[in-house]
Design brief:
The protein has a domain at about 1-50 and about 85-110 and about 125-150: 3-Layer(aba) Sandwich (Rossmann fold). About 40% of the residues lie in helices and about 20% in strands. The protein contains 5 helices and 5 strands; from the N terminus they run E-H-H-E-H-E-H-E-E-H. It has helices at about 20-25, 30-40, 55-70, 90-95, 135-145, and strands at about 5-10, 45-50, 75-80, 100-105, 125-130. Strands 2-1-3-4-5 form a 5-stranded parallel beta sheet, with helices on both faces. Helix 4 links the parallel strand 3 and strand 4 (about 100-105). The longest helix is centred in the middle third of the chain and has 17 residues, at about 55-70. The protein is globular, with a radius of gyration of 14 Å.
């Protein structure tokens, strides 16, 4: 069975308690359960991770690239949080590995502060899902499942 890697960046461990008026009451554990349910529908396993550390996320993208090359990983769903708007390193890691990546944001980043309007990941992502709440993760997993098999 192939796997989808779901990566979560800084502060997403605080979902459910961090600014619930913006991010809602859904916890990261709830998001993980949603991802597992959606992946199962598509015959995929889920590797679900969160880190507040940019270098750890870079390492995980590198690991994902090797797994994708080996045919064991279908793709990555990535909510990089604030690193979306600041991290050339994450964009370079994604570009360098060629991993199919769907960028996800719980909120509509384009309707928020101007600093959140730019994404370093968008140019290297296969697709972007923003503003649909936690459901965006499920949609991203469905998109990964629909990607053609690795040649």
């Amino acid at each position: 069975m192939s796997t989808v890697l779901v990566l979560n960046g800084p502060n997403l461990n605080l979902l459910g308690t961090r600014e619930p008026a913006i991010y809602g009451s859904t916890t990261l554990a709830d998001v993980e359960a949603l991802c597992r349910t959606e992946a199962e529908k598509h015959g995929l396993d889920v590797d679900f991770r969160q880190s507040n550390h940019e270098g750890v996320l870079v390492d995980w993208i590198h690991e994902a690239g090797r797994a994708h090359a080996a045919g064991t990983l279908k793709g990555v769903v990535f909510n990089a949080g604030a690193y979306t708007h600041t991290s050339l390193a994450l964009a370079d890691a994604t570009r360098g590995t060629g991993i199919p990546l769907i960028e996800v944001h719980i909120t509509n980043v384009h309707a928020r502060e101007a600093v959140r309007h730019h994404s370093f990941l968008s140019p290297v992502a296969r697709g972007i899902i923003v503003g649909l709440g936690p459901m965006g993760y499920a949609l991203a997993i469905a998109a990964v499942a629909a990607l053609p098999a690795k040649a």
